[in-house]
Amino acid sequence: MDKKEISYTAAIKEIETILGKIENQELDVDELAGKLRRVTELIKTCKSKLHSAESEVDKILKEIGD
Amino acid sequence: MENSSSVSLLELNSQIKSCLHKGFMAPVWVRAEINQYNEHYSGHCYIELIEKGANTDSIQASVRATIWASAFRRIKAHFETSTGQCLSEGIKVLVRAHVDYHEVYGISLNIREIDPNYTLGDLARKRLETMRKLEATGIMDMNKELPFPVVPQRIAIISSLSAAGYEDFTNQMQQNKNKIHYYLKLFPATMQGSSVPLSIMAALDKVAEHERLFDVVVVIRGGGSKTDLSHFDDFDLAYYIAQFPLPVITGIGHEKDDPVIDYVAHTRCKTPTAVASYLLEFGIEFESELDWLNEKISSESKSLLVVEKQRLKDLSEGINASTKLYMEQAESLLREDLLQTEAATKQYLQQLNFSLNRLGDSLTLGSYQFLNRSQSYQEKMLYMVESAMQRRFEKENNRLQVLSKDAQFANPDNILKKGYSVSYYKGKAIKDPSEIDIGETIETRVYKGSFKSRLLE
After folding, report:
1. Which of B235, B322, B341, B377 is deepest in the core (most CB within 10 A)?
2. pTM score
3. φ, ψ of residue B389 in degrees (nearest 5)
C-alpha cells in the first residue's frame, strides 16, 4: 500500500512542483520539453494504475482466506 | 388413585388460568429484555423476554411472549420508525401485555403495545455510557488521524455475503462511471445479532494480517432488513476499530442515532451506497486533478513559450534597433572619419603641396646655387684647361721650334743640296741594291729633280 500511495502522492507532488516552476517562469525553455515529457509519463502511470487491474494484486487478494 | 383432594392437570391449569385472568384483568406494563425473537411465517411473533441481574448477565426472570399477527404489523412499524431500529434480541423493551395462560402452553404475555421511548432511552443511556468510557481511553480520534490514501483503491470489506448492502456496494464500486479499477476483498462477518462485535473483530484481525495489501476497510451492512444497531454500540468493537491501523469507513445503515462505532471510525456514512460514493469520489477527484494539472501545465507551457517568443522577438527587435543604432553610429562615425580623413588628406595634401612648393623653391634655389656653383666650377675648369693647354701649347711650340731646326738639318733637300741623291724602286728608297733585279727601272731623286735609270749591274 505504502509504495503505491507514495507514488500517487509523489506523482502529484512532482507534477505540482513542475507546474509551479512553469507558472513562476523559473523553468528554462530548454528544460521545458523534458519536464513536459516527465509530466506526461507521470500522468500516464497514474492513469494506468487507476484503470487497469494489476493481476498480481488480484491474485494475492484471491489467495487470502482461500 | 382418585380422591376429592386431587385435581386433574387440566383442572389445575384451568384454575390457574382463571386465577391469572382474575388477577391480571387489565394489561400491565412490563420492562424486559428481548432474549429470543422469532417472526413466524404465519405473521405472529414469538419472543422470549428476560430480566438480567443489575451487574451480571445471569437471567433472573423469563417469560414467553407473543404478538399476534393482527397487532404485530402495527407494533413493529411503529417501533421501527420511532427508534430507527428493529425489534430484535438484546434490546430492552417496555411492553403493554395481557398475562395469558393456556392449559397446554402455559403462561405467556400477549403483547399489545411496545413503547419505543423506553428502548430509545435505554439505548441512549447505554450508548452514552459506552461513549464516556471510550472518551476516557483517549482513543476516540485515533483512526480519524490516520492518513487517508489519495485513492482508496484496495478495499477490505467487512460485511456478510447475504447482506443486500454488500452487493449494492460492490456493484457500485465495480461499475463506476470513471472505470477506475478497485480491488475488493470480502472478509465475511455476522452483521446481525449479539455475535456482531466478536465476528467483526475476527474479520478485522484477518484484514490486519494483510494490512499492506489494503488502503482502507469498510464495515457495511445492508439497508433492507433493519436489525438492531445496539451491537454496533459495543465498547470492545469500538475500542478495536479506533486503534485499527487502516482507516475504517462505516456504512451501517441507520436512521436515528449513530452507532458508537461511527464515532470512532475514520469516516462514517449512512449506507453502503453512501460509502461507495464517498470512496469513488477520491478516484474521480484524483483523475480530474491529473487532467486539470495536465491542462494547466500545457496551457502554462504555451504561455511560457509565448512569453519566451515575445522575449526573443523583443530581443531581436532590440538587437535590430541597437544594430540600426550601432550602424547609424558607425556610419556617422565613418562619415566623420571620412570627413576628417578628407580634411586631413586635404590638409596633408596642402601641407604636401606646401612642402613641395617649398621643396620646389628650395630646389630652384638649390639648383641655382648648384648651377652657380657648377658654372664657376666649369669656368675654373676651363681656365685650368686653358692654362694647361696654353702651357702645353707653349711647350710643344718650343719643341716644335727645336724640332724644326733639327728638321732643317734632316730635310732631304738640304742633303740633296749637298749632292746626295735618293733612289727609289717601286716608290721605296733603295737601301740595298740586291733587292733590285737587273734591268729594272729605278728613279733617282736629286736636289734639282729626278731621273730614271736602268740597272745594268
Report:
1. B235
2. 0.59
3. -65, -40
